[in-house]
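Notebook entry, structure prediction.
Reason for the run: the old model in the group folder had no record of what sequence produced it. Starting over properly, with the input documented here first.
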Amino acid sequence: MKRRVVVTGLGAVTPIGNTVDEFWEGIKAGQVGIGEITRFDTTDYKVKLAAEVKGFVAKERMDFKAAKRMELFSQYAVAAAKEAYEDAGLEIEKEDPFRAGVIVGSGIGSLQTVEKEYEKLLSRGPGRVNPLMVPLMISNMAAGNISIQLGFRGKCTNVVTACASGTNCIGDALRAIQYDDADIMIAGGTESCICPTGVAGFTSLTALSTAQDPMRASIPFDKDRGGFVLGEGAGVVVLEELEHAKARGARIYAEVAGYGATGDAYHITSPAEDGSGAAKAMELAMQEGNVTPDQIDYINAHGTGTHHNDLFETRAIKVALKDAAKNVVVNSTKSMIGHLLGAAGGVEFITCVKSIQDGYIHRTMGTEVADEECDLNYAIGAPVEKDVRCVLTNSLGFGGHNATLLLKKYEG
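New structure, fully documented this time:
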């Protein structure tokens, strides 16, 4: 018998705000967090724009000494986790710490550490490489640092599935609680790789937008879309077993009712052309949540702004929802904050929770005229205000990873 799981805490660091409240205010204001790259000189780069986090000061969000032993992706994760923990009103001293776990992923970890230490290796020799290089770099350190900072001693893992990492982490945390491995899980994703290697690598892959106008750079589903905009940040949530949450009087934001995960077995970067893998992930999430396609009010799409993703995801939605696809509102948060890679699913999950809470589905910013083959309702031109009861959120990762979560308005 699976246990019910609810959301009781939210935490975020994003290109349009370094807390959940700031982020959501930015969303409602139609703010776009894309601008010229400031982290390095882009003179020799085709890509000039990214969605950088602004004004983040680690020592204001966590212990200064601990922060010095973390790279940005871990700092963002710890800051977001602390916010979620406090938002949930948790006190680990009152809990069994072995029943409280962490699953927070990063697609890449720290490329910055690799760049910096490799340069030292070449110029000054192997003896000058930082002894902390490995723990600064490896992607599991986001989860490890959260565990250390908050005293959570239960299951502590990270899922690395490229751009699906955050969603898979929340899905795995859901399963941990459903099947009694834990009562509380901190889950989500984090990323920070706006650096020379990251931008050069994605540019060579022809995945990034080379647009010069920040308002027309990340334009999912648009006929003129030309790639995604690299973003950074973290989205972390507290999931909790329903009765445990009720017993301590926690505020319940929403219920996590379903999870689907599949593999395309098709191509290392392109989704399956018929959308079958992503469609199956949506179908599995709806099946677990015992909802029919016509009950889905809103889909937060992966919606990267690349030609293949947007077209094939549109096909997937039609396969999964059938005739109901024409009635569902679809949008892409990446139109406002760029593509946060491993963090995307965590932040987009928070967007879905807030949409349920406020009855507000944000506009897909920047997108003006949809591609002829992208023929769903993408919230172009204006946000949609309506009662939001059932939501799907999709994440699709290089390697053919598909992940979908189903959220429901909590009914008691």
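Summary: The chain has two domains: 5-247, 258-408.
The old model has been moved to the deprecated folder.
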